[in-house]
Amino acid sequence: MTIFNFTQKSYNTLQSPFMMYGQEHRLSLDTLPAELIREIADCIPTEKQVVELMATSLRLNHHLKDYICHRNMENGNRGLLWACQHGQFEACERFLELGADPNFEPLVGYTSRRILNIAAYGGHIECAQVLLLHGADPNAKDGSGDTPLFPAIENCDAPMVQMLLEMRADPNVENEHRYLKASPLEMAMDKELEVIVWLLVEKGAGLPD
């Protein structure tokens, strides 16, 4: 086991007493300054191991909470993706407060998906709202040509559709990659979603020419 494998066992080892000048001393990460704790975290190879370290102490968790978010953003921003996929609103908000890109477009499978579309697809309305409040574009298209309205309608999610429209999503957007149901209104009509059809029409949606 290396010093970087911070399981509970290795953390306990770091707390074990040692002798100096004939007296017993106890090494504890909890007593180190916050700056030194972050420098130690910089030497830990993986984010998973940093999280293991955080789990050993409330103080370490407190000092490394923002550190792990920044480190994650520097290494692909997968934490924001995970938060939006699983509806973890508070984690999503914290990533954004620390500077994560609300228009982040990760590769999911073989297609790039905007993070807002992912939240909409999962029905995670609070995550979608906080993304929009931090500057996410409600009309940006992902690699499949969809704006967030399309996955929301695909899931028959009227509250999500209503929220997106209130946040200025374009009800007349078209997806040129779709041969049928190329507009939100066409999709809603095809799925016989009366409430969503009404919401779209109320915001000025019309059928494509």
Automatic annotation (TrEMBL):
<feature type="repeat" description="ANK">
    <location>
        <begin position="111"/>
        <end position="143"/>
    </location>
</feature>
<dbReference type="InterPro" id="IPR002110">
    <property type="entry name" value="Ankyrin_rpt"/>
</dbReference>
<dbReference type="InterPro" id="IPR036770">
    <property type="entry name" value="Ankyrin_rpt-contain_sf"/>
</dbReference>
<keyword id="KW-0677">Repeat</keyword>
<feature type="repeat" description="ANK">
    <location>
        <begin position="144"/>
        <end position="176"/>
    </location>
</feature>
<dbReference type="Pfam" id="PF12796">
    <property type="entry name" value="Ank_2"/>
</dbReference>
<keyword id="KW-0040">ANK repeat</keyword>
<protein>
    <submittedName>
        <fullName>Uncharacterized protein</fullName>
    </submittedName>
</protein>
